[in-house]
Amino acid sequence: MNYETSIASDTDLLDPEGAASSRRKRNLIIAIVLLTAAAMAAAYFFFGGTSTEEEAAAAADKLGQAQTVSVVAPGRETVARAISATGTLAARREIPVGVVGEGGQVSQVFVDAGDWVQQGQVLASIERSVQSQQIIGQEAQINAARADLQLAQNELDRAMQLVSRGFISKADVDRKTATRDSARARVSIADAQLRELRARTARLDIRAPVGGYVLERSVEPGQTVSQGSGVLFRMAKGGELELQAQLGETELAMISVGVPATVTPVGSDRQFNGTIWQIAPTINQQSRQGIARIALPFDRALKPGGFAAVEIKAGAVTAAVLPESAIQNDRDGSFVYIVNKQNKVQRRAVKTGIITQQGIAINEGLDGTERVVLYAGGFLNPDETVKPKLVKTAAQSAAR
Question: Which residue ranges traverse the bilayer (predicted)?
């Protein structure tokens, strides 16, 4: 023990309260020094900024806390442009058949709905007993007129032989010539009247104006008919049928005559191939729709008046194709969310096109290289950081 230590120890022993006060001052000074050092360190980190490594660590920590979203890079593909519509089946050229003559009581009906007939074939016959008697009487008048003509011709021939000898005057010859000509005219008149009677009688047969398929029969034997009786038969000319598809103005502008289409009648799983043969030149002002007429081959499964769905092949388009879940809509239109290189969500306005089995074609807004959010778009906000997970759509998986 040295002298100084001995003195301090002795002093502490002599003055214990002073020693305790000295220790408190020393501890206070140490605490102040430590707090100053801590404040200086905090000021350095706060005002001096973080290092690049620290920024990367903070970003990684933020990404680790971000939600995971499924994204897809749709690319661009060629898809068939198909237009779906509905319409009514009908005869391509429907021919109504009625009475063209004076009418009367129907004696026989020879065909029924669903029969095939040839042009000129008798469909129904009207009773003609009166007309038959008129024809017989007219034929008799023709025979009498021909007899008068023959007599007048014989008398003229004899007169021509006697005029050169002077036994008959030239005036007598002229009178006999006039008599012969008059008899010939009466024969012509009677013959024309007979042809008229026969034509009128023939019109009592209701005939098919064209060959085709009988769609409807509205007459029965014993029924009295006339030109005011309306339509007795309806026919499909040549059995040709069609679908009258209702399309909007935009869809009508996308098609043309000759475009193929597939028709499926309601209640049937059969499909029939046809082509557009006529596009209506006018638009209905109330519905803003027009009619595309699709020619179909005859088949008993296609019943005029029935309802059918149609898919029209309107060419092809190259575009990005997305599932419906990726496309959002609001009052500003359609849009999708894409994830940029910084893994931040961005809104992108798009213009949708045709709907296919693979999805919805995007006509404008995407070039196919973007990472598009597939699901949970309604729970995202622009500039939100997410953790993207690249997946394949069903169409991309099927292509591989």
Answer: 28-47
